């Protein structure tokens, strides 16, 4: 490979990976994938597993750009983005406001619904009330209001004798309020979207066929946890609606870089529902975004290069979405 083939030659890029959240192991894999691609593109990479001293570490390193490979709380909810803004560093993915908004399921659902996107019903409930008795007629889903990767999610099936007692356990660490939504039967679909909040591009629709009961942490990241069917074998009209809603969700939340929108499609009732928009989608060997990019003719290294270029463009434009 010549220097002309290495578009990031000699650029110093810090990759954040690991971190303190419940999704640490996935973040380590995502960060490793980012770092490998950046090195193949010619960059000088510093791998940073952030802790409370992250500002001091980055100040000492003086990178030209930060690739955010973190998942979950702190890395995905606007906190680390705020640190990077304060340090004046260019960074990948969405900014402070969009990250915080997308991570909060209740607030992001309100924004998505206001944009005309169909979302599940339900709302926030105290976790002890949810553990004490059914707060809605089963089937329904209980999930933390501000976690990713389906951590802490329970499906209460029709005919269930009682609610999930686990949410009232002393070791529950996902907040006092939980989101409770009606369970939407049917297909699990996902769409990757690239670009600025204005004019984003949705890549494709993947159907996720599960080996577990639902699209949980195991199904997302374990070998054989799920099978991805790309393109999803769904009617053209549903495909077009999913692509449209993914772009609209990306834009309405003010996202940048790459996001992944997760849907449920109930074919019997012709119901397509957007569950959430993930602003820090995984880049592991089983991840959906690299698969969809490859399907669209974009290699993994080219995808990472685009993500970096988008971050530089945002910095030059002075944006803080």
From TrEMBL:
Class of this enzyme: ligase
GO MF entry, a single one: D-alanine-D-alanine ligase activity
Signal peptide, first to last residue: none
Reactions the enzyme catalyzes: 2 D-alanine + ATP = D-alanyl-D-alanine + ADP + phosphate + H(+)
ATP-grasp domain mapped to chain residues: 109-309
Domain of life: Bacteria
Assigned keywords, A-Z: ATP-binding, Cell shape, Cell wall biogenesis/degradation, Cytoplasm, Ligase, Nucleotide-binding, Peptidoglycan synthesis
Cofactor(s) it depends on: Mn(2+); Mg(2+)
Compartments in which it is found: Cytoplasm
EC number(s) on file: 6.3.2.4
Pathway connected to this protein: Cell wall biogenesis; peptidoglycan biosynthesis
Job of this protein: Cell wall formation.
Family (UniProt): Belongs to the D-alanine--D-alanine ligase family.
UniProt protein name: D-alanine--D-alanine ligase
């Amino acid at each position: 490979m010549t220097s002309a083939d290495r578009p990031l030659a000699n650029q110093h890029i810090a990759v954040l990976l690991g971190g303190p959240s419940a999704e640490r192991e996935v973040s380590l894999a995502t960060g490793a994938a980012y770092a490998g691609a950046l090195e193949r593109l010619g960059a000088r990479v510093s791998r940073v597993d952030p802790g409370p001293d992250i500002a001091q570490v980055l100040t000492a390193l003086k990178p030209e750009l930060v690739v955010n490979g973190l998942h979950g709380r702190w890395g995905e909810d606007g906190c680390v983005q705020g640190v990077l803004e304060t340090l004046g560093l260019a960074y990948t993915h969405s900014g402070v406001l969009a990250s915080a908004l997308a991570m909060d399921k209740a607030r992001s659902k309100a924004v998505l619904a206001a944009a005309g996107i169909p979302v599940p019903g339900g709302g926030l409930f105290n976790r002890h009330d949810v553990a004490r008795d059914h707060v809605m007629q089963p089937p329904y889903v209980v999930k933390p209001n501000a976690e990713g990767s389906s951590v802490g999610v329970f499906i209460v099936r029709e005919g269930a004798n009682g609610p999930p007692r686990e949410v009232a356990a002393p070791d529950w660490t996902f907040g006092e309020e939980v989101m409770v939504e009606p369970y939407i039967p049917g297909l699990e679909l996902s769409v990757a979207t690239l670009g600025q909040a204005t004019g984003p591009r949705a890549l494709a629709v993947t159907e996720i066929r599960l080996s577990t009961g639902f699209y949980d942490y195991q199904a997302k990241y374990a070998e054989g946890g799920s099978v991805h069917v790309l393109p999803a074998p769904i009617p053209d009209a549903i495909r077009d609606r999913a692509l449209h809603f993914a772009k609209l969700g990306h834009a309405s939340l003010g996202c940048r870089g790459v996001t992944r929108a997760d849907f449920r499609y109930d074919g019997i009732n012709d119901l397509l529902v957007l569950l959430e928009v993930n602003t820090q989608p995984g880049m592991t060997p089983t991840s959906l975004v690299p698969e969809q990019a490859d399907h669209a003719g974009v290699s993994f290294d080219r995808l990472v290069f685009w993500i970096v270029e988008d971050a530089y463009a945002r910095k030059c434009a002075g944006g803080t979405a």
